[in-house]
Write a structure and sequence with these properties.
The complex is a heterodimer. Chain A is an alpha/beta fold. Chain A is built from 15 helices and 21 strands. The N terminus and C terminus of chain A are likely disordered. By secondary structure, chain B is α/β, with parallel strands linked by helices. Chain B contains 20 helices and 14 strands. In chain B, the strands form three sheets. In chain B, strands 4-3-5-1-6-9-2-10 form an eight-stranded mixed beta sheet, sandwiched between helices. The N terminus of chain B is likely disordered. Classes of the chains: A alpha/beta, B alpha/beta. The interface between A and B is large, with 42 and 31 residues.
């Protein structure tokens, strides 16, 4: 082992986390094995690259909130991009104001540490912190996405965009290509600027363009469509070049973490869980083509939200609730039994990976507002919950050909030995705390580091390989 | 509903003469019969200042008594990141404050007529009005892109001028008598005649707003001047780039053209004045309207080449902020004579509420802050190549604070200026270090610190309701 110190004798530890939204661990391995992405390849040789499990559900808002709080949705309260309001079936979009557990940068601030947080999804609206924050998706306007506000004009000057224009990029390949690189350039320019100017202990910079590219073209890439394969290569090379720059630019002694919030995989079928519930008589609406759950028929017993979140329509909870408390277990029992037979009629395969009950998967005070049953994604089957859908199975929506995968998120810590798995997204916040010499207690997750002494590092990477080998035996 | 309760207070006619400069309205150097009459039958505020240099925030300030950043009906909130206009910004807490809503609760009948496309239902300006007539509904973004306007650039000048002249003449013949003033007045009096009882009537007149039109039948114009006017209007309106450059202070206009532009503008203000005279006389003469209060005010002025600028919205110079403000009505309520001190037009909000309770109101003089919200809101500005490099400056919010004749201006990017309006009313010389910089900076800092926060943008964060933009983004990625 060796003890890392920066050459100038500054023993202060610092951590840089580069997030790559949706980047699958397996894809990185495929690409580096094929001899591409030289900077990734070189970096990966200096530490441990492992697949990590995403949040439940593995949707970006939940996943990133899990990442930056170190807790699951049962504690932080963000179960998806949308949720029903506590008192009705009307939708709302949870944002940072709804997050019930402290963010890692707030925990660090209590210890006097500064953070720069750029483009982490789920951090809108920006609020004061000890450091700098630029919110990520979904942020309707840049004005409220920046702290301190003085930074706003400078970001605009850099041509910084929160996101690419998803509708046009989905419709036009040329537009996607242009937006992809344009948005990425603004993003990296902002990272370069903040890296040079800000004083930080933790720097989290996230690239979300990857997720957009995958959502629109993962299937085409797997199918080998030449222009798509070419775009994938060119875009990942651009990330690789940036990574090369970053590794050079980071001061000595800065810990470097690469991570993604979930993986990606090929999508074959769109599955509508609400259409399935309607077919089985769990759910009805008072409109022919319901736009949302607000027009739910008050006799409905179960409804669902994407992806794979099922809720018993409890009486008393909402005006249109129907199931009295004593009947909830019976409804749940029937629902679970029916879900056990939720199969693709063409292949006979279950349309999901795991069926999880609320109390088995969620911990924390917000658990009650979570789904009673959650289905995790099985590759190929995208779980949707459109209320207007009448068919349970359908082809992927136009222009959307790619879906998240739950257990192939990317995790890499430079130069660190990792403890045996499983590796969970909620383990990252305590890991960051550990790397910064702060007690990682108080999170749901636990530090991923093999040693509790953050200054202890693996000298010989073979040690690491042996360690990982030991865990799989 | 409280509509059945009859209020005690007087009726109020609240007139906004859009885009009217105080100095042009007051006819400098000549006797202004209009103002003389106003001093006799009401009160004239000689130094009224608008808290914003353009329509939407200025109107919203008069309807809420709040500064632009406080009510949030201003540039940062009007467009989303993609440049699309947002709608219905007047909602929630703002509705509760909204002047017509307040007066309606007191039992007033509320009528609104607007010729300005911003002051329209699409932003929610019609809140609290029993009836609201929008002469230019459809939002401000709808521009006529006539084929002839687009092809006219491709022709060499003699041909292009001929086409332009024909278009201008056709438009002038189509527009009728004016830009809507007659129609608004007719509607107003028809409505007022329908019923007795106190009312609050808001009317926005757009005549002085660009494009300036020559008077009917070119009264007072020689044949040559008439030709010049038509040619100038054609040149400036068929090249929207003129208006962009004019906003940026990059427009160059020969003296002859600039003089013609000023003449046309002054003509529009004079014309509107004659209509307003008619309005005041009619109110005074009408049976049952005797104790009615008539407020005449403008939302902002107009730049006519001063500082290289034309139009409005783009600066905080006095050409834009100094506006006419006259109040006719019973002496015990509105007072008489002239008020030389500075008043902000947003103080009309509290004044109207006082009048409605039959309490006298002299608008508060003293200290005023105005703020500019940058001009990036203007989507067409994006099309100008040089605008990209100016983006930071163009987007910057700016503020001005007054203390007597001292005027201090600062913007987000740190530029600041101090003018002495007594010796330099044209704001041409920034005062040196001997000026009260420190005191003015302190005044501004205190004023900005004392404002209420939070009203501005909370309407779009999706926390309290579904937000169409968030929804669109989520749908694009298949999450909804």
């Amino acid at each position: 082992v060796n003890r890392r110190r920066s050459p100038d004798g500054d023993s202060r530890s610092r951590v840089f986390v580069l997030g790559l939204d949706g980047f699958p661990c397996s894809y990185l391995r495929t690409e580096t094995d094929a001899g591409r992405l030289p900077n990734f390849r070189a970096l990966v040789a200096e530490g441990s690259l492992v697949p990590m499990r995403s949040s439940v559900p593995s949707v970006s808002s939940t996943a990133w909130t899990t990442f930056f709080t170190g807790h699951d949705a049962g504690a932080h309260g963000v179960f998806g991009f949308m949720d029903c309001r506590p008192e009705s079936h009307d939708f709302y979009f949870p944002n940072l104001d709804h997050v019930r557990t402290p963010a890692i940068w707030d925990v660090l601030a209590d210890k006097g540490k500064r953070s720069v947080v750029l483009n982490v999804p789920g951090t809108y609206p920006a609020r004061p912190l000890r450091g700098t924050l630029v919110s990520g998706f979904v942020a309707p306007s840049l004005e409220r996405a920046v702290h301190p506000p003085e930074l706003l004009a400078r970001l605009r000057h850099l041509g910084y965009r929160i996101d690419l224009d998803a509708w046009s990029s989905r419709a036009s390949f040329e537009r996607l290509e242009e937006d992809l690189f344009g948005t990425f350039d603004g993003r990296t320019a902002a990272i370069r600027m903040l890296l040079a100017e800000e004083d930080w202990d933790l720097f989290v910079g996230v690239v979300t363009e990857t997720d957009r590219l995958y959502h629109f073209h993962w299937n085409d890439m797997e199918a080998g469509e030449p222009r798509v394969v070419d775009l994938f290569h060119r875009f990942h090379e651009a990330i690789d070049r940036f990574l090369g720059w970053l590794v050079e630019a980071l001061p000595a002694g800065v810990e470097l973490v690469l991570m993604s919030d979930h993986g990606f995989t090929k999508e074959r079928v769109d599955v509508s869980t609400n259409a399935w519930l309607r077919e089985r008589g769990y759910l009805a609406f008072q409109e022919d083509v319901p736009k949302n759950l607000s027009s739910i028929d008050p006799r409905s017993t179960v409804y669902s939200l994407a992806p794979g979140r099922f809720y018993v329509n409890r009486a008393g909870a909402r005006p249109r609730g129907s199931v009295p408390p004593d009947q909830v277990p019976a409804v749940l029992e029937r629902l679970v039994a029916d879900l056990r037979g939720f199969k693709d009629p063409e292949t006979g395969e279950l349309v999901y990976q795991d069926l999880l009950l609320r109390d088995d998967v969620y911990h924390g005070a917000q658990r009650e507002s979570g789904p009673d049953v959650v289905l995790t994604l099985r590759p190929g089957y995208e779980l949707k919950a459109s209320t207007g859908a009448t068919e349970v199975f359908g082809p992927p929506a136009n222009g959307l050909a790619g879906m998240h995968s739950s257990d192939d998120a990317l995790l890499f810590v430079r130069g660190a030995a990792l403890r045996p798995g499983p590796y969970e997204l909620h383990d990252l916040a305590p890991t960051v705390a550990s790397l910064l010499g702060i007690d990682p207690a108080g999170f749901l997750g636990t530090s991923l580091l093999a040693s509790t002494d953050p200054t202890v590092r693996v000298h010989d990477m073979d040690d690491q390989k042996r360690l990982q080998g030991a865990k799989t035996q | 509903m409280s509509g059945s309760r009859s209020p005690e207070g007087p009726s109020i006619v609240f007139v906004v003469a859009d885009t009217t400069r105080a100095d042009v309205f007051a006819e400098p150097g000549s006797n202004s019969p209009f103002l003389d009459e106003a001093r006799r039958a009401g009160r004239v505020y000689e130094r009224a200042t608008s808290p914003a240099p353009w329509t939407a925030p200025a109107h919203a300030s008069m309807f809420t008594g709040l500064a632009p950043a406080e009510h949030g009906i201003w540039r940062p909130n009007l467009f989303d990141d993609a440049g699309h206009p947002r709608s219905k910004l007047v909602q929630g807490e703002l509705v509760d404050r909204w002047l017509p809503v307040k007066l309606k609760k007191l039992g007033y009948r509320t009528l609104g007529i607007s010729a300005n496309p911003w002051v329209a239902p699409f932003l929610g300006f019609d809140a609290g009005f029993d009836r609201f007539l929008s002469l230019k509904e459809g939002g401000p973004m709808r521009r006529s892109r006539a084929l002839s306007a687009r092809i006219v650039r491709r022709f060499p000048d003699p041909v292009a001028s001929r086409i332009r002249r024909r278009r201008v003449k056709r438009r002038l013949s189509e527009r009728g008598l004016d830009g809507g003033a007659r129609r608004s007045l007719e509607t107003l009096f028809r409505w007022l005649a329908e019923d007795r009882g106190p009312f609050f009537a808001f009317v926005n007149f757009m005549e002085p707003h660009w494009p300036y039109q020559p008077p009917a039948d070119f009264e007072g114009f020689s044949t040559q001047e008439r030709r010049h006017a038509i040619d100038l209007i054609g040149r400036l309106t068929s090249f929207s780039r003129f208006s962009i450059k004019a906003l940026l202070g990059q427009a160059t206009l020969p003296d002859r053209d600039r003089a013609m532009l000023q003449r046309l503008y002054v003509g529009e203000v004079r014309y509107l004045q004659s209509r307003l005279t008619e309005l005041v006389e009619k109110v005074e003469a009408a049976e049952g309207l005797r104790d009615t209060i008539v407020v005449l005010v403008s939302d902002h002025g107009e730049q006519l080449g001063e500082h290289g600028l034309f139009g409005h919205g783009s600066s905080l110079y006095e050409e834009l902020l100094h506006v006419p403000l006259l109040v006719f009505g019973p002496e015990d309520l509105v007072g008489r004579g002239s008020e030389p001190g500075r008043v902000g037009t947003q103080s009309l909000y509290e004044a109207c509420k006082s009048w409605a309770r039959c309490e006298g109101a002299d608008l508060n003089g003293g200290f005023v802050v105005a703020e500019g919200d940058g001009m990036w809101f203007h989507p067409i500005v994006r099309r100008l190549p040089s605008a990209a490099s100016l983006e930071t400056e163009l987007r910057a919010t700016s503020w001005t604070a007054y203390d007597g004749d001292w005027k201090y201006v600062r913007d987000e990017t740190g530029h600041e200026a101090l003018f002495d309006l007594a010796s330099d009313p044209g704001e041409t010389r920034v005062v040196g270090a001997e000026g009260p910089w420190k005191a003015m900076r302190k005044i501004m800092a205190e004023a900005l610190a004392g404002r209420r926060p939070g009203m501005q943008v909370d309407r779009n964060d999706g926390s309290s309701e579904t937000n169409p933009e968030i929804e669109a983004q989520l749908r694009a990625l298949g999450y909804m």
